[in-house]
Amino acid sequence: MLTVLRSYAAWLVPAALTLLSFGSGNEKAIAQTLFPFSGNYDVTIAVEPINENFSRAIERAVSTDAPYGLTEYNGLVYTLTDFSTGLFTFNTDPTAIGLEGFPEGFIEFSGSGANKVSGTATATALIDFVNLRGSGSGSLIITGGEGIFKGATGTLDFFENDTISPDPNDPIRGQALVTGTIKVVPEPETGVGTLVGIGLIGAGFMFRRRCLRSAS
Fold first, then answer.
1. pTM for the predicted model, two decimal places
2. Which residue has the higher pLDDT, 87 or 20?
């Protein structure tokens, strides 16, 4: 009987260590990877009026120095304009600025490779209609991605200076600096290893019960 229990104990300890090692691996998987970001973009914005207060802004931008291959930007945002002050309020969520019945907008950084990040945006800009200049800033909230940015989160801030054409049909052109940090939490390897460890320990207890019955 003692020999059987010793054999059981010698077998069970490695199984328990296997379970602990899987637990340790899962803890390591929780550690997030940080990707610092800084890029200059040439921006083109096509403004499509919806009514006297609201418009739709289709944004395009390209960069020659953006990291991780994220050299292209595309976005759809909605704009609330106060012409008395020149204040423009932007949001990818139209309801956030009081506009109902329109689909959600988006922002996306991509390039020629597999890496992409996407999310939402909020911003404000002040336009000088006399000198045809504008400046603005805002936040790009990252909610997902592809390539090395699968499961990405984070916030990118931007500052932008624009030139306004006297022809309202022309797009707005400007330069933007985008900075911030993109965060990625690696997906856990799998829950199978932990389940196997638990299963081994459970089988060990069943084996012990059988040994005790045989000894009796």
1. 0.74
2. 87
